[in-house]
Amino acid sequence: MTLFSQTKNDNETFWENVRFGGGVGLSFGDGFFSGTLAPTAIYEFNPEFALGLGLNGSYNKQKNFYKSTIFGASVISLYNPIPELQLSGEFEELNVNRTFENITFEDDNYWVPALLVGLGYRTDNIVFGMRYDVLYNKNKSVYADPWVPFVRVFF
Question: Which phi and psi angles does 6 have, rounded to 5°?
Fold first, then answer.
């Protein structure tokens, strides 16, 4: 007869593998303001693989021209073939709401997807890298270019 027992509570094991992080951004100058808050949580299955969810909220305003709000969510997967290298895949779906002060431009409210594949250098809990938006659309994307640099931090 063989008996097995667990030494840890399942809830403790789960939360020990969850990491929180994300991004915060501010940009301003000559009548322009932009602010972003993007929290993310990942679950590390092992030292190589992680999967997570994120939220994104941004506000932008150009004085006497327009303002916009962007809200959405993302799913992210991370793979570390070696500790210093991180490959990533991320799908985001964002709602963009733009209002213009000039009636020449039509106000806009639309959903835009992004499928980002990335490569980064990892040191401890910080990753520096570059992502590419496979679904980039220059008329609708929230990114100025399909190549997007990033800094990722998880605790």
Answer: -95, 140
If pLDDT is split at 50, 70 and 90, which confidence band does 11 have? low
Q: How confident is the model over 69-74, as a mean pLDDT?
A: 97
CB 116 within 8 A of CB 80: no
- CA-CA-CA-CA dihedral for 41, 45, 51, 57, to nearest 10: 10
Report which residue type is found at 73: A
Q: How many domains does the chain have?
A: 1
Q: What CATH number has the domain bearing residue 127?
A: 2.40.160
Q: Is residue 62 part of a domain?
A: yes
Q: What's the start-to-end Cα distance of the chain, in Å?
A: 43
The pTM for the full model equals 0.83
Two tokens at 48? 């190589």
